[in-house]
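Let us work through a complete example step by step.
Step 1: write down the sequence.
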Amino acid sequence: MYERHDPRSAGVASGGAGNLATFYAAIEEGWQTGLPEFVRAEFAGFLDCSVMQRGFAHLACEDCGLPRLVAFTCGGRGFCPTCLGRRMNQTTQNLLAHVVPAQPLRQWVLSLPYALRAPLAYEPGLIGVVARVFADSLLRWYGRRLAPSNGTAQGGLLTVIQRSSGDMRLNPHLHVVALDGLYVAGADGRPVFRALGRLKTDEVADVVQIAKIRVLKHSSAAGWCGSVPRTWRWTTPSRRGTRCWRNWRQPPLPGCRPRAPPSASASP
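Step 2: predict the structure and record it as tokens.
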């Protein structure tokens, strides 16, 4: 039976509605840094979600004619539990029923350096570039690992972008659910799934190094890595032929081009 959800009955919504003006005043007085407009809009939409006074649809049952008033929702993607929960359930059901095959899956989580988090959060399209680079790197790694001489092997994955940590701190990162293997052509030409099996620690390290190199290269080429430390530099090739980056000095410096390490005679 349908039961209307009232978000103002939740403690977060009722407390936020009563203290929103106080919170905004404290921000303007310098209690914290300025609050972006999209955050204000998200919070305002959350407080108006499913509130009848903000608009509703008048529906009726086709069989018995029983009327229902359904309040409009905010459709927010920030922290509205009603809209996020509904979208999460709909997305999960669609993926399980129509997208994801009955094969082994593996979750990969890409966490990014602090120097990249602000540009990725505020510059349009940048997080999408990073997601595509990581997805391509991961699929190519599966190909080299399981079918190095097969140009027709196919993998698959889906990426979910998460913009905050569990404590609501700014932390753009990626959750990737990938087929833990590849589809290759069998003897009869039909696709056969070739599973990866147990993943080794050095294999995870290879994926991390490949993704790091490609993300930093794309950031430098796109010109949006002004906050990427100049202290990143190349090191010797790894056992699998993958070149690695490492940071030989902690304080990040502005600029994008890799910097040579200091000479032995240089003063600290």
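Step 3: interpret the result. The chain has a mean pLDDT of 76.
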